[in-house]
Amino acid sequence: MLPDDPRRALARRLRALREEHWPGLGITQHQLAEAFGGGRRPLSISLISSWENMTAIPPARRLEAYATFFATMRSVETNPYRLLLPSQLTEDERATRDALRHELFMLRDRAATEPGPITDAPPRPPGGFWHFNDENIITIVCAQLPQDLLAGFSYADPTSPDYVALYTYADLDALIELYGHIRMVNPNNQVYFKTAPELVTDDYTSHLVLLGGVDWNFLTRDLLKRVELPVRQVARADEQDIGGFEVRLDNGTKLFAPQLDRDGQLVEDVGHFYRGRNPFNAKRTVTICNGMYGRGTLGVVRALTDARFRNRNETFLARHFDNAPAFSILTRVEVVMGQALTPDWTQPDTRVHEWLEPEA
């Protein structure tokens, strides 16, 4: 094998980070495996060794861990060593992480052209992110529009001959977009959509997909209280309030709010995307797509349904969060001429916050 072999270059760089990155502080494979495992279930030392001896190429999410770990001395301030969340890094540390991440991903891309396994990365489902790979039930849950918004509207009055049930749904554009896509990529699954008040007991233990935020969708509000997430949606107190998403940081909190122009027109919403285990059934998932306004919810949905963007956004999710038990993204959703534009998550300015739950 030639000295400039791409697999050798990646292996040498990973070993150098561990042994030489901080002068006078050599880190053992055991210590690194322990840190990457979050102190609960360390990676195997043989796995770290395989990456440093060219017998395997680490998956992208492990290189993310390398970049985060070696971006700050705070990783080794306590014993056992620890892996901070990207959101816990300072601006300077984040810049160091980004540069190291870029370097490692370039080395990995070159090494991946050589024959050999890329370990610790499960295959992506053939139907993309919204393919659930089983024949279980999927339930899309929308909020029901408040009665004061429906008053006097005959199409939303069950006693009227003109009654149409869908007129009572909030986030109807997001529902139509997502329902068709999920049906397409899950032809063997039963896919239902309901408003939150229509749910029955068995619905809670299916794969849940929640549309809309805490203002009207009480199931979104309930589930967000049940997960340990550093993101909180601040409900709008009235029509003049724009609310926002509050992120808990080491040194306090930061609010990400929508933007309106001088005429009160929405020009940028904030959307939240969350995927994790269903707290009512650990063998099923819960996915939340919500925004401060309906166009934020639609933008988050379209990030993984829009044929022009879904592949690149799915690749981003696979590289950053693959195999994480739970993760979330806060994203900007641009609004032009009243239309929500699909966010491109490969652009750093589009993502305002990212979080992932360490593996148990």
Automatic annotation (TrEMBL):
InterPro entries: Cro/C1-type_HTH, Lambda_DNA-bd_dom_sf. CDD domains: HTH_XRE. It comes from the Bacteria. SMART domains: HTH_XRE. Residues 14-76 form the HTH cro/C1-type domain. GO terms for molecular function: DNA binding. This is Helix-turn-helix domain-containing protein.
